[in-house]
Specification:
Layout (H helix, E strand, L loop, with lengths): L5 E6 L20 H7 L5 E7 L20 E4 L2 E4 L25 E5 L22 H7 L4 E7 L1 H14 L3 E10 L6 H11 L3 E2 L1
Parallel strand pairs: 1-2, 1-6, 2-5, 6-7, 7-8
Antiparallel strand pairs: 3-4
Helix pairs in contact: 3-4
Length: about 200
């Protein structure tokens, strides 16, 4: 077992982010079995899900003439416009069928407010609206978090940087993540994570 002060955060291993999904990340399914093997080593196990209402403001389909993966400006800052994905209750929003979630202590669902996207497990994209995860981890006595999942350059990245900003020791297991890598986003994300004090394993 890992130290009781350490938690694993399994980020968005959902059907829509795996091959065949609406926002597929190349190789997203390859990390499922090794994550299953790793999770039982931790006393605290957190899983996250992207969980969007139909017609979410981050969907390109909601912006006339906008192409998926183009950029727009929201009240809270720049926003990538995504294909419709992880719609509440849909098969795409479900966890990958081979992901073993039976050991989850808590499942954090994010992005369910129509007007704001949410990459991080800790805050929505305005960087102020909390998910409640930080408080949960602190009441469980957690000091460090290990991140795995999808995608390295978006939800893993934002979660890792926020965790470091909140004072947790943070490690991202690169071999158990996969990236979208949109216009150099992976390199930028890794630089940003390193600058925030995130470690890579």
């Amino acid at each position: 077992m890992r130290p009781v002060t350490e938690a694993i955060l399994v980020i968005d291993v959902q059907n829509d982010f795996c091959p065949g999904g609406a926002l597929a990340v190349a190789g997203g399914n390859e990390i499922v079995a090794p994550i299953n093997a790793m999770v039982p080593q931790f006393a605290v196990r957190v899983f996250t899900q992207d969980w969007h209402p139909a017609g979410h403001s981050s969907f390109a389909s909601q912006h006339e003439g906008a192409a998926p993966y183009s950029m727009t400006e929201m009240a809270y800052g720049p926003q990538v416009l995504w294909p419709d994905h992880c719609i509440i209750g849909s098969e795409g929003a479900g966890f990958h069928s081979q992901l073993d979630t039976r050991g989850a202590d808590v499942i954090i669902r994010k992005g369910f407010r129509r007007e704001i996207d949410s990459y991080s497990a800790f805050f929505e994209n305005d960087q102020t609206t909390p998910t409640g995860l930080a408080g949960y981890l602190r009441t469980r006595g957690i000091e460090s978090v290990i991140l795995v999942g999808l995608a390295t350059d978006y939800c893993v990245n934002f979660s890792a940087v926020d965790a470091a900003r909140l004072g947790f020791q943070v490690t991202v297991v690169e071999s158990l993540c996969r990236a979208i890598d949109l216009d150099g986003s992976l390199s930028a994300a890794k630089d940003g994570m390193a600058a925030a004090g995130v470690r890579f394993a």
